[in-house]
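Hi team,

As requested, here is the filled-out complex form for the hypoxanthine run. I kept the field names the same as last time so the parser does not choke. Let me know if anything looks off before we queue the next batch.

— J.
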Amino acid sequence: MEINLAVIGGTGFYHPDILQDSKEIVVKTAYGEASLIIGVYRGRALAFLARHGGGHALPPHRINYRANIAALKEIGAKRVLSATAVGSLREKLAPGTLVVTDQFIDFTKNRRQTFYDGSDEKGVIHTDFTDPYCPEIRENLKAKLQNMAVSFAKEGTYLCTEGPRYETPAEIKAFALLGADLVGMTNVPEVTLAREAGLCYANLSLVTNYAAGISPHPLSHQEVVEMMEEKLSVIRELFMETLISLPPERKCRCRQIEEYPLGGK
Ligand code: HPA
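And here is what came back:
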């Protein structure tokens, strides 16, 4: 069975009630293994990927992003929606706000960033990131959000740090000057690898806290987890409904490099 649609979430994002006939599969890729839960939602095959690994809880800088995206490609995924937790750099983006991310800034330092490292016959490939997130999925996501009683922002720039530490207030001030609205640790290179693999990929970020120096108290993983748990069921349903409402044929430009198979290294 080809599985067209996929969701990437943090630990605890999947809930057994959401899919029928669900089962866990381990997909072996040239970049490592990833475990997925596959099943059926309203008659459509769908996959859930736990970004941090099934039960292993890898920290953001240790996640095998290439294996995760290659596994989705392997099962036939074409469209992917991801959820991430972020700190907010803007007063108007209060904790609890959902943001349909439209740009990113990459401050990661030590991650495998590409499938195309020049070590095989594909040669040099440079990928366009004018629209880093699939415009078609973003539009559908916003349309669904409009009908829900949740506060959301139509756009936002996500700055990805290496982690696992949180930022200093000086870094947050600098990031805000650079144009970032949100700070997190997991969206890059997930978003870039998805594009390289020819997948349509969009992101919804949940503001779990004000960033360091803006928040009135020191940051804790606990507050991030608590806010995520509070919003999980809403986001899950939003994702499923968005994915199944997409027209069957992709019209966006994300698929532009689909014809290049992933490398084998
Ligand atoms: N900084 C980095 N990553 C995060 C934050 C933060 O404030 N909140 C949730 N993920």
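Two things worth flagging: The chain has one domain: 5-257. The pocket of hypoxanthine is lined by residues 85-87, 161, 166-167, 183-185, 208-209, 211, 219, 224 (CB under 6 Å).

Thanks,
J.
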